[in-house]
């Protein structure tokens, strides 16, 4: 059985969280570290936007500042995510790994088996739904919202028919980075209060649709799952879902130094975060 590394880097700021993901990707592409699964949280709670989003058009920065929220642009695509009461995960593995299909959608499905098993470890019934059929896809999406959880991929992890994880993927240096949000709880009003819409009527309509599609663990179970319990469950889930042995580790000196550099030169800069 292959051994991968698992990291629990705890709660950090937005620039650092994105910088660490890229530093791990870079280190793995050079063969310096094994395939890695990372769990982390956000302090302060942060709105992240996808790489291709236009921040000035889609984000209400006055509301963001008034609520004391952080902000960062992700290197991955997708839409806006409010990282608050959640466990965030990332998986970094080579494109050439025998487990990884060349198709982005198929690799998403493989990596998400770890998420599926994590929810089962918590005692919940989750399933992977194929959205190749357009009618099936429409059940899980709504157009016009900037919110990430409103935009399903070709495979969706759902619990009781609603989306529980928002994930995105990027490939650089022949390496896959997939990261996403596992919602422990969800404040939909807070998310939609920092996004911009052409009218309040559209905001309310999009928010209602979002509530029907997205769900947190607390929403569908009434249970409060702590960050620590979620890390434990999804560590076991990824080991089982990917059929690998996970060995706890820490950032290497190379990763630490590169992450610090990426904060200074990329994720902590206006030129990156507001470039569109």
UniProtKB/TrEMBL annotation:
Family matches, as HAMAP family: LipM
Keywords assigned by UniProt, alphabetized: Acyltransferase, Ligase, Transferase
Organism of origin: Tumebacillus lipolyticus
Residues under site feature: Lowers pKa of active site Cys: 163
Domain annotation BPL/LPL catalytic: ranges: 31-246
Chain's role: Catalyzes the transfer of endogenously produced octanoic acid from octanoyl-acyl-carrier-protein onto the lipoyl domain of GcvH, an intermediate carrier during protein lipoylation.
Keyword Acyltransferase: yes
PROSITE patterns in UniProt: BPL_LPL_CATALYTIC (PS51733)
InterPro entries for the chain: aa-tRNA-synth_II/BPL/LPL, BPL_LPL_catalytic, LipM, Octanoyltrans_LipM/LipL
Catalytic center residues: 148 (acyl-thioester intermediate)
Annotated catalysed reactions: octanoyl-[ACP] + L-lysyl-[protein] = N(6)-octanoyl-L-lysyl-[protein] + holo-[ACP] + H(+)
Protein known as: Octanoyltransferase LipM
Enzyme class: transferase
Family of the protein in this entry: Belongs to the octanoyltransferase LipM family.
Pathway annotation from the record: Protein modification; protein lipoylation via endogenous pathway; protein N(6)-(lipoyl)lysine from octanoyl-[acyl-carrier-protein]
